[in-house]
Design a protein that fits this description.
Largest sheet: 4 strands, parallel
Structural class: alpha/beta
Number of helices: 9
Shape: globular
Order of helices and strands: HHHHEHEHHEHHE
Distance between the termini: 23 Å
Number of strands: 4
Length: 208
């Protein structure tokens, strides 16, 4: 579901974005792109977390994934007239791969929440805001292990691979939202280049 409350195919904005980026794409083609990304993320997990930049030319699948993502992001930027695209994903490998996207400035906003709050939240029954079902639940031990590993991976990989890295405590964001927002803006703001075109930037917010 889009944040406007309707399924993505029925959303005027996303329909225009997909049409501009890919033309008349079918559901089967969209599913194939989704499967491709899942295969890339699953099979390139180790390389995706490497704290160095590596060439993607040898991997046809990664090249196709990045080409399709670039087309999608250019369409979003063009139709929304936005200087920044905010990706609120939590998949570290995906973020690490996206840092290789040509013509972009990848900014990481690492949103870290107290692990006790995370463990409590993952045990609650909460409706998903993007899928027609409840959010999955997880026991505290598994949540703690995932919290540690994910945060270490962000520190190890995205902090080194991205153009900008900023860590923000969730509790500070709640208590002092204006100060936290100003901090993020100061770190990630990027003026337009000499031709008047702003770099396409991704801010990946992680709440682990």
């Amino acid at each position: 579901l889009c944040s406007c409350g309707v399924p993505l195919p029925d959303c005027h904005f996303w329909s225009a974005v997909v049409g501009t980026a890919f033309g008349q794409i079918t559901r089967d083609q969209a599913r194939e792109l989704d499967k491709l990304e899942q295969r890339v993320i699953r099979r390139q997990r180790v390389l995706g977390l490497a704290p160095v930049r590596w060439s993607t030319r040898w991997s046809k699948r990664i090249h196709i994934m990045l080409e399709e993502r670039a087309r999608l992001c250019r369409s979003i930027s063009r139709l929304s007239n936005a200087e920044y695209i905010v990706d609120s994903g939590k998949e570290v490998t995906f973020g690490a791969i996206m840092t290789r996207l040509d013509g972009t400035r990848f900014n990481t906003v690492h949103l870290v929440r107290d692990p006790r709050g995370v463990a409590f939240s993952w045990q609650k029954q909460v409706p998903s805001d993007s899928e027609p079902r409840d959010m999955p639940r997880s026991p505290a031990v598994r949540t703690a292990a995932r919290w540690m590993s994910n945060n270490l991976f962000v520190q190890f990989s995205l902090k080194r691979l991205g153009s900008v890295y900023s860590r923000v405590r969730y509790e500070d964001l709640v208590a002092y939202p204006d100060d936290a927002a100003r901090k993020i803006y100061r770190v990630t703001s990027n003026p337009a280049d000499s031709n008047g075109h702003a770099d396409l930037s991704f801010k990946s917010a992680h709440e682990f």
